[in-house]
Amino acid sequence: MGNDSYFFQTERLIPRVYTKEDVDIIHPVISRREIAETTIMIPHPYPKETVYWWIDYIQKNIEKEEGFEFGIFSKSDPKTYIGNIGLIGISKQHNNAELAYFINPDLWNMGYATEACKWIIDFGFDKLGLERIYGRCMAKNIASKRVMEKSGLSYEGIAKHEVLKWNNYEDVCKYGIIRSEWENRKTDKSVVKY
To answer: What secondary structure, in 3-state letters, does the chain show?
Structure first.
């Protein structure tokens, strides 16, 4: 699968492969402190040069089919960058991947994260043939917990002090969904199709 062979859309979103031309619209979002505060792996500050590296990393992962991350853009205004959605750390041995996402804080609480997550979960099971998709979030990130639950993932437990973020150890909640659970929920009319 080449990077240019992907075109998808949901009811309100266009998830698409990043290009170098996206750096100027990504950087103001990914460098927001609120993004770093609510995610496990994104640092703050986030230098613009790092966005170039990140796009290269994403493109290489797509080529090797080791991860699929997409920019989320508005269907009504394709220049509006909403955030990021992806399946990362794909294990070919265990046939699973981690759900990863962030949304522009100016667009929180509008259902974009849930819509994008449902889409990428469908992509993971339907197009990639995964057996399991899992997600993690800091225990204090109530909104992300809700997104995962609304996207069909079940709570699996908590790992105490799993992440050191800004000199504080954070507990991390674990969520997951397996193929048979996804197949059962496909009858739900709220599931986003591509």
So the answer is: CCHHHCCCCCCCEEEECCCHHHHHHHHHHHCCHHHHHHCCCCCCCCCHHHHHHHHHHHHHHHHHCCCEEEEEEECCCCCCEEEEEEEEEEECCCCEEEEEEEECHHHCCCCHHHHHHHHHHHHHHHHCCCCEEEEEEECCCHHHHHHHHHCCCEEEEEEEEEEEECCEEEEEEEEEEEHHHHHHHCCCCCCCCC
Instruction: Give the integer Cα–Cα distance in Å for 49 and 154.
Output: 37
pLDDT digits (tens, 9 = 90+) for 111-141: 999 999 999 999 999 999 999 999 999 999 9
Domain boundaries, the chain: 9-134
CATH of domain 9-134: 3.40.630.30
Model's pTM, two decimal places?
A: 0.91
